[in-house]
Specification:
By secondary structure, the chain is of the alpha+beta class. The protein has a single domain, classed as 2-Layer Sandwich (Translation Initiation Factor IF3). Helix content is about 35%, strand content about 40%. The protein is built from 2 helices and 4 strands. Strand 3 and strand 4 form a beta hairpin. The longest helix has 24 residues. Pfam families: YbjQ_1.
């Protein structure tokens, strides 16, 4: 499966199959949440939250690809990610794009 954030793939002609998406809501355990909260007092990268967001993007992408595979897509183009906080220490990640089939 080819995944790109452009609306074309060089050298490929395709037909659009439709919108596909994936999402997840992730949180850290309370112990990590407290340590990351203390980290904000001294500054620096919040590694646990960075890992959480990387995991969330990977899960959301996997779900989007599964949806594209159900449509028998060869690629997903014009991929976009968005995230939002849903509560203290929890974030939603959504990824969406257009599933396409090569001609």
């Amino acid at each position: 499966m080819i995944l790109v954030n452009t609306d074309y793939i060089t050298g490929k002609e395709f037909e659009m199959l439709g919108l596909v998406k994936g999402s997840t809501i992730q949180s850290k355990n309370i112990g990590r949440d407290i340590t990351q909260g203390l980290k904000t007092l001294i500054g620096g990268e919040l590694v646990a939250y960075n890992e959480m967001m990387n995991d969330a993007r990977a899960i959301a992408t996997k779900r989007m690809v599964a949806e594209a595979e159900e449509l028998q897509a060869d690629a997903v183009i014009n991929i976009r990610y968005a995230s939002s906080a849903v509560m203290q220490g929890a974030a939603e990640v959504i990824v969406y794009g257009t599933a396409v089939k090569f001609k």
